């Protein structure tokens, strides 16, 4: 079957508020370059940085180019030159309406064809949102083709209350079809494939229930530290940065019922249903040694750079199956995976030490799926060993990096891979109580366990899972 190659369905202008944000540099700019390299861009498009820092078009182009070269060691020079010709910069205020009006006039001189979609992408601190939204709605950047679309990247607020404020500020000024809440994990082929894998394979549909599964492990290890993002990270910590968003989304895709329809609201509703069913068992918080010596981090910082959690779902498919999540910075390697361990059968029950049967779905650095099956050794005795059978999952269809896919969807007006507030609130309801109890009374789960850089995390995380008779599965390759 020939897979249609997704291209930008319309001419567009992408305005980047707070264009120097780290996610823009790390993820968005390289993705935009990739779209140009793969000839997925329309003829007429513009990428315009809008920020308070004075900068010329030329300086912003150099900034963009540097970000691409940092991620892409041998870029396609012709494609890079082409995209740089579409890049502009405007020094503007977030609070003054006049700035937005002048910008609009300038935009019209950049945009050759007025039939286009305008998108605003935000990489600004949350307290800048209300002013920007109000001004955008008043000055009106809609085009004849479509109302302005707003792409807001996670984190959606800092807690439930601020997420609610964000929703209110958005709803006051914009319609739901203008709002695109972006979690880049949902643009990863491997993440959306979790649901497809389950429902396209009766082996998995049958086995992945409380009847057969003993526990689920979701791991997102990173070898990198906070990469100079002291200001952001020290206020957020790994629970908010990785778990509230990306990893609870992975959990939702892995455990939700197949939605009745493919509509955005049906998908979001099923995800929210799983997230609402979460009960937190135990939590371990860790910090890598030397974190409080990083530039910009207070000496007495209590921010966690590592966490391990035990969750239980009050969901009909998964009642009683513990889900363990762990994530951290400055660990041994970059490894994102989902491990489903199956309940012990007779050989495992009779012979302590035999490994469980497992399904390992590796999401990063390379996508791969592995079954770990107990198989009999040759000969007369019933001795077993682990047989690993697996394959890389090569993307062989229309393969795109996550921000590229999500951006093309936003240009096309498709919201299926974006989030809704119901699921965001449900995720905050899981995380908020953990944070609050650490802000005030120092309860036991707030204890910070120090761990060595390059390790697999604190010992307390191993003890958390061992207490239930399980072990973390750490990748072998
Ligand atoms: C971002 C976090 O959302 O995701 C970063 O803010 C983290 O701290 C990054 O490093 C991880 O994304 P990925 O795609 O590299 O796993």
Model description:
By secondary structure, this protein is an alpha/beta fold. It has two domains: 12-153, Rossmann fold; 187-397 and 418-466, Dihydrodipicolinate Reductase, domain 2 (2-Layer Sandwich). It contains 14 helices and 15 strands. The strands form two sheets. The chain has a nine-stranded mixed β-sheet, sandwiched between helices. β1, α1 (22-37) and β2 form a beta-alpha-beta unit. α9 crosses α10. It is globular, with a radius of gyration of 24 Å. The two termini are 33 Å apart. The relative contact order is 0.14. The model has no long low-confidence stretch (mean pLDDT 92). 6-O-phosphono-beta-D-glucopyranose binds at residues 222, 241, 336, 364.
Short account of what is shown:
The chain has 14 helices and 15 strands. The protein has 477 residues and is of the alpha/beta class. It has two domains: 142 residues, Rossmann fold, CATH 3.40.50; 260 residues, Dihydrodipicolinate Reductase, domain 2 (2-Layer Sandwich).
SSE layout and pairing:
Layout lengths: L11 E6 L4 H16 L7 E7 L5 H15 L5 H8 L2 E5 L5 H14 L6 E6 L6 H11 L9 E5 L6 H14 L5 E4 L6 H12 L1 H6 L5 E9 L8 H26 L8 H13 L1 E11 L17 E8 L9 E6 L6 E8 L3 H5 L7 E7 L3 E9 L7 E9 L9 H11 L8 H19 L8 E4 L7 H8 L11
Parallel strand pairs: 1-2, 1-4, 2-3, 4-5, 5-6, 7-10, 8-15
Antiparallel strand pairs: 7-11, 8-9, 9-10, 11-12, 12-13, 13-14
Helix pairs in contact: 1-2, 1-3, 4-5, 5-6, 6-13, 7-9, 9-10, 9-13, 10-13
The chain binds 6-O-phosphono-beta-D-glucopyranose.
The site of 6-O-phosphono-beta-D-glucopyranose has 4 residues, from loops.
């Amino acid at each position: 079957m020939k897979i249609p190659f997704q291209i930008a369905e319309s001419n567009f202008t992408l305005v980047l508020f707070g264009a120097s944000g780290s996610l823009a540099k790390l993820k968005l700019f390289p993705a935009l370059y990739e779209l140009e390299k793969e000839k997925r861009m329309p003829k007429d498009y513009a990428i315009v940085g809008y920020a308070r820092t004075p900068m010329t078009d030329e300086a912003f182009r150099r900034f963009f180019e540097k970000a691409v070269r940092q991620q892409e060691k041998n870029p396609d020079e012709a494609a890079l030159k082409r995209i740089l010709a579409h890049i502009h910069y405007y020094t503007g205020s977030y609070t003054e309406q006049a700035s937005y009006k002048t910008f609009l006039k300038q935009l019209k001189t950049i945009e050759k064809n007025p039939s286009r979609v305008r998108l605003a992408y935000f990489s600004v601190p949350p307290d800048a949102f209300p002013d920007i939204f109000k001004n955008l709605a008043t000055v009106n950047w809609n085009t004849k083709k479509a109302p302005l679309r707003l792409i807001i990247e996670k984190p959606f607020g800092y807690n439930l209350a601020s997420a609610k404020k964000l929703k209110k500020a958005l709803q006051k000024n914009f319609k739901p079809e203008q709002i695109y809440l972006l979690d880049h994990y949902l643009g990863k082929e491997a993440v959306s494939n979790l649901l497809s894998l389950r429902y396209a394979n009766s082996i998995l549909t049958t086995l992945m229930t409380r009847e057969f599964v003993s526990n689920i492990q979701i791991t997102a290890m990173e070898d990198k530290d906070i990469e100079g993002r002291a200001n952001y990270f020290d206020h957020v910590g790994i629970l908010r940065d990785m778990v509230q968003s990306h990893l609870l989304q992975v959990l939702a895709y892995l455990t939700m019922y197949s939605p009745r329809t493919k509509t955005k609201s049906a998908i979001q509703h099923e995800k929210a249903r799983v997230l609402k069913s979460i009960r937190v068992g135990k939590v371990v918080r860790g910090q890598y040694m030397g974190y409080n010596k990083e530039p910009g981090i207070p000496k007495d910082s209590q921010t966690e750079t590592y966490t391990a959690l035990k969750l239980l779902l009050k969901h009909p498919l998964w009642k009683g199956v513990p889900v363990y999540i762990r994530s951290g910075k400055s660990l041994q390697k970059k490894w994102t995976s989902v491990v489903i361990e199956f309940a012990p059968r007779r050989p495992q029950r009779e012979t302590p030490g035999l490994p469980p049967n497992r399904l390992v779905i590796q999401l990063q650095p390379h996508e791969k799926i592995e079954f770990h099956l107990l198989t009999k050794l040759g000969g007369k005795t019933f001795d077993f060993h682990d047989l690993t059978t697996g394959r890389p999952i090569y993307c062989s269809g229309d393969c795109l990096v996550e921000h590229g896919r999500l951006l093309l969807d936003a240009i096309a007006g498709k919201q299926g891979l974006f989030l809704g507030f119901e699921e965001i609130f449900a995720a905050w309801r899981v995380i908020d109580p953990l944070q609050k109890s650490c802000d005030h009374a120092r309860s036991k789960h707030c204890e910070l366990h120090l761990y060595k850089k390059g390790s697999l995390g604190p010992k307390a995380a191993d003890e958390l899972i061992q207490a239930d008779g399980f072990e973390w599965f750490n990748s072998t390759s």
